Amino acid sequence: MDAVRCYTLDFFPENILIDILSYLNVRELVRNSRVCRRWKQLVKDQRLWRAVDLSTWKRVTSRVLWALLRQYLGHGLRLLRLRGLLLSARAGVFLSESWLRALRSKCPRLRRLCLIHTDLRGLPSVRLLPLSLQVLELHFCEVPAGFFCEGDGVETLVLDSVPSFSDQHLRSLSAWRGLTRLELRDLIRVTVAGLKSCVPPGPHTLARLTQLELQTGSRTQMVALGLGEGWPGLERLSLGGKEVGPGLLSLARLQDLRSLRLRTCRLTQMMVLRSCRCLTRLRLLEFVEVEFVEDEVRSDETDRPPASDADPAPSLRRALRSMLPACVTHFTRCTRAVNKD
Residue 239's closest CA among 253, 256, 255, 259? Predict the structure, then answer.
């Protein structure tokens, strides 16, 4: 033990020290780089900068971004999360064109970019973002009119509560050749006509889309989901919100659907069975935080097995198993309610 006590961190191998430093956040890494020269070199190791999350750092400014890009961010960066100044009293420019060009040059392997509360109205288009991007997430952001003109490399686009996103932006996504997954959540300016124009065939349709997630409180948007002859090529669909029910009747037109996820909504057993009976290719059906509404149980129905928290809809599970034998059904945090009207 006396021999062990005389050892310091200088005797530890570099790989072990990097593993220890990987548990620190960005601010703690920057502070530890000031300990000594060896720690400064260790902190600059690109294995520590593969996934950078700056969303919890409340005072990130353009000056901080430039300092991180010049000293630490490099070819090892794969994921970057940023929180902007949209709702901050400091205001000012957050993401500039020069910084984005430097990011594209110095971080050629960046695959995923997540922006939160970021004002992008000062940027001409999405072409300023790194060409290596495969996933782009915009949460509570503001975008200009022609921001989504081109984006060939992006495969997944997530739009969550983007007030300025409109039908014009939605139609411009048809020029994205690599876009296969689209998530739309609480977009108040997207109308029924905009959703209808995305369904192929047509001049401005998302024909290459294979996965779609739609979460909204609008009844009309849900109804517009399956307008026309369906959505050829759409394999995965996720619906969420209070008005999911009206859109379920259109699922019969989605003949290529293989995975269906329903979340945070109220459904009845008959509604689910009617919408899924024609989906012969369905292999996965998920219910997440769904409230199943049933009629009040009569006295002559005591022979039915009672529902429990683990299985809130046993009769629905049996009916789906008989109707779609090749489909796997999952229930996650679902509840059961009795309609007494």
Answer: 259
Contacts of 233 (CB under 8 A, 6+ apart): 200, 207, 208, 209, 210, 256
Q: In 3-state terms, what secondary structure has residue 27?
A: helix
Angle of the 314-323 helix axis to the 269-276 helix axis, nearest 10: 10
Residue 313, pLDDT > 60, answer yes
- For the segment 192-242, what is each residue's pLDDT rounded down to a tens digit? 888 888 888 777 788 889 999 988 766 666 665 655 567 888 899 998 888
The encoded tokens of residue 295 equal: 């009629």
Point out the least confidently predicted range of 73-87, 101-115, 190-204, 310-324. Answer: 190-204
* Stronger pLDDT, 340 or 169, i.e. the higher one: 169
Enter the tokens of residue 73. 């961010």
- Residue 273's contacts (CB-CB under 8 Å, 6 or more residues apart) are 316, 319, 320, 323
Question: Residue 301's pLDDT is what?
Answer: 47
Its pTM stands at: 0.86
Using alpha carbons, list the distances in angstroms from residue 143 to 76, 115, 200: 28, 12, 26
Amino acid 103 reads L
- Strand, helix or coil at 23? coil
Structure tokens at 136: 């782009």
Q: Residue 119: name the closest of 104, 106, 133, 138 by CA.
A: 138
H/E segment holding residue 31 = helix 26-32
CB 156 within 8 A of CB 135: yes
Tens of pLDDT, residues 231-240:
888 899 998 8
DSSP code of residue 226: G
Sequence-distant (≥ 6) Cβ neighbours of residue 220 within 8 angstroms = 191, 192
Element housing 137 (H / E): strand 135-139
Contact 112, 133 (CB under 8 A): yes
CB atoms within 10 A of CB 33: 18
What element of type H or E holds 315? helix 314-323
